[in-house]
Amino acid sequence: ENARYFRSEMQDRGFDIKPGDHPIVPIMFYDAKTSGTIADELLDRGIYVISFSYPVVPKGEARIRVQMSAAHSKEQLDRAIDAFTEVARKHDVID
Known about the structure:
CATH architecture: Alpha-Beta Complex
Order of helices and strands: HEEHEEH
Strand content: 15-25%
CATH class: Alpha Beta
Number of strands: 4
């Protein structure tokens, strides 16, 4: 349920999410530098995520993977969603 909520909210805010129904949610940024910078800034805000780029994923398909847990509260998910949104807007990834 948490992964579905997170996916839906992130897509509604303009993020490109790889399809699926599992607790690992890949958020596509495509550019390795952008993906890494956003992951670093999220960590500074207390949101622990991992950026993956080539050679872990194909060139041009950099992403941040978010691991969902049933233990996350809706408030924690909303905090992460808001942080993603603020940082992505700062880097002109979403409107």
